[in-house]
Write a structure and sequence with these properties.
Strand content: over 45%
Number of helices: 15
Structural class: mainly beta
Helix content: 10-25%
Number of strands: 50
Shape: elongated
Radius of gyration: 30 Å
Oligomer: single chain
Amino acid sequence: MMTIRPAGLYGRRNAFLLLSTILAGAAFGSVAHAQEAQEHIQPPTDIIVTGSRLVRTDLTAPSPISVMGSEDVKLSGNVTLEKTLNEMPQLASGNTSTVNNGGGSGVLTANLRGLGNTRTLVLVNGRRFIPADSNGNVDLASIPDALIKRVEIITGGASAVYGSDAIAGAVNFILDDKFEGVEASAQYGISDRGDAESKKLDLTFGTSTADGRGNITLSGSWTRQSSITQNDRGFSRTPLGEVNGQLVYSGSGSIPGTRVPLSAAQRAALTGVNLTPGGSCTSVTGIRFGENGTVLPYCQPEDTYNYAPYNLLQRPLDRFNVAANAHYEVADKITAYAEAYFVNAKNDMILAPDSFTPLTPGAASSTLLIPNYANNPVLPESLRQFFTNNAAIFDTNGDGTAEIVGGGRRADELGTRNYRYERQSYQITTGLRGDVSLLGSDWKWDAFYQYMRNRTDTRNEGLISQTRLSMGLDAVIDSSGNVVCRNQSLGCVPVSILGLNSISQEAGAFLTPVRESHDIFTRQVAGASIAGTLFELPAGPVSVALGAEYRKDKYTFSPSPLDLANEYGAVSQKALAGAYDVKELFGELRIPILADMPFFDTLAIEGAARYSDYSSVGKVFTWKLGGEYAPVSWIRIRGAYNSAIRAPNIAELYTAVTRGYSSGTDPCAIPTSGGDSRSDALKNFCVATGVPAGEIANFTQATLGLNQDSGGNPNLREEKSKTYTIGAVISPPFIPRLNITVDYFNVKVDDAIMTVNAQQTMNDCYTMMDAGSATCRAITRLGNGQLDYVSVSSNNIGSLKVNGIDAQVDYRVPLPGALSLGDDASLSLQAIASWLFERTTQVLATSAPQDCAGYYGAGCSVGTGGFITPDFKLNLGATYASGPLSFRLQGRMIGDLKLYPTATNVVKSVDPVWYLDTSFSIDATETFSFFGGVNNMLDRQPPILGTTLVGDANTDVSLYDTLGRRYFIGARMKF
């Protein structure tokens, strides 16, 4: 029996003990490579760290920063950055290349703290990068990973420094702009099963001018990643749902031949039909049409359709990118610089043959009209007679047109649905930077302009046009005795969908025209800043940074002519055009109070403020206050408080209302396990809201999910967040080369822009049982009681809260000569852990906050990929380096998960999952090296949760490794 634990208390003791052991082990016998500053002390230089524009002489800052080095990226074996980035414990799962259904156009994203990718700001060299969709998300596949020097991840609101979107923090990719020489590399990867093949080629060239005043760096990369299907892995070949307390086969209610749901009263009234099942049958919920239109009983779940073998488990990717960085000192203390990026990326989403509710545009919701059913020549004689005999059910008004309500059809005759995406992006940045003498010191200034453009072309194949289906069903016999469409426009071909293999090749071509659309996102940014020292205090310089920025985002979506003609009914895509701009002023200040005194090696405070004027939400103000205190040189305590905002993006503001599929469970349906727990009050309310009274006792949900209508809201306001962090950095001199960091974080978001999803809407309605409430009015049922659709939209109605602790230990120590390969040898160990004490979401004021940290189900996971947020993640790494050899072993742990207390499912918990990876690099000569490794060495398979909780593949494809053991090998030349 599961109970709700107090956030941050129950279930964490073992995790704390584990990290304590790690800390002790690292301190007295381990090693790490991330921070070697104690061994290699360099003269102070002016630097700027992520999360601040102030000029500093060290890497300290009040906000916690985690760093991933270039070798971590190069030796990961991954050809897409999101896989490597998501291994960091601070990041929750985002959209990855293993998310098929629910992955949209394949934009690969970062998701700090599980607050969502729209609340994580992605930067390149401290500036915004190319947006890839209407949400403004950056596709991590577009970042030139061959040039990455390091990745800095800052926790906490950074809006005062960077503006909107940095509520959870920022991920900053620092690229090499001073490369010299030529470097070429090639990498090949393949899974243990001989699939999931990947190839990557990189070529980088850089040269400095003879006078040392400038440099130009060029880099090109080509990547290909092969697809695999759910049929290629045992855990995902068959969709599993809970029936009578067991996970058993449970496919889709959209089936070949067509399913028609009927109430018990309607089934009892059928004439000329034998509804006695021919085999095992859990529940008869309607009829289906077999060979030649034969009417048969529909058994749930035995007659459902297994869609899994067709769906992808890894999406294919073809990518080519080019990057160029250049700078030249055009005059004394003035440098001109430019950056240019170009990316062309293609990826596919493939789903099982089209699954649809047959309908006639303009008719009642989810209703398919069959004109002149008694004499319609497209129907076999047996079906014409069936509709005639049962006119009381299908032709209640006696007009000669049959109505099929809420049916489900799988167009298996037509092959898979193919969604093909081609993304072409480019960005140009130009600017001037330099030094200027002010107030007796050198100040650094920078002025820049950016232009970014992304175009995504989409080609959809295998999707049924409901308009054409209605035309094909309305058939007559012409003067020559041929069966033809009454309306012969568009090259209409007569067709019936009632029966197995009833759609001919010619009819299929007519029903599924190619559906092409495209969208364009452009962004312009101009900014200028200056930073330096106002004056000196006894404790050090008072540093200040000031600046201004202008940004304009513009997005257009052009759907296909078929959509504009509303050929797809409620799921037809609508045109979208939207834009907004923002003008901003910002500043930062750091004041050292005490330094180099007993118990006060450092005491300083700093603050930042930003004033923004949005054309969409108006004027907003954000600020930050932080400080650092070091009683001695090797202990530093840091903390910061941030007031941040996120302005609504174009999709949230302007997207037209469209219909899509969502997973969900009808509260009115009898539970699939544990007996009938529905109260009499709930049953009565279900009857009052559309479930037939004669059905309620044994009412079951006929489909695996439901339809959801969603769209934008131009009246949205900005989100507001309060964030504070406090932590310590310890580098004890009595244990050289040891660094320990521990940071507590707390982020709260108010007026969060949220869409109350279909399940949350239904839960609220049938918990409050107020038929006049907004959530109840958003639910539409068919005449037989089955859910038709749920209307949802974005509003500033939510609140989010996360808090937890990050801890990291790095330690490196020389090894004795007996363990070296001729040169000095070292062993490095690293431990990075993140506890999420709380990840609370409150969508509706009438509902209690829901803590999803470490839970799944009941809204803590979704049926299009999972996206579960663990409450504990841990990385352990060990690296041996000597002479030409580097060898690394890494263990990654995803903490245990539990079923949310209000959810019902046979899968009550999931044990911790460990992955073991290894990699090596050998310098064969001064110019040639080769590398390789094995990821998921133990071939750990993902836990099975079932489709109800996490979607098509039975597991959280965004969180767990779905490919299994895989190998990679590569070579690199540099000269």
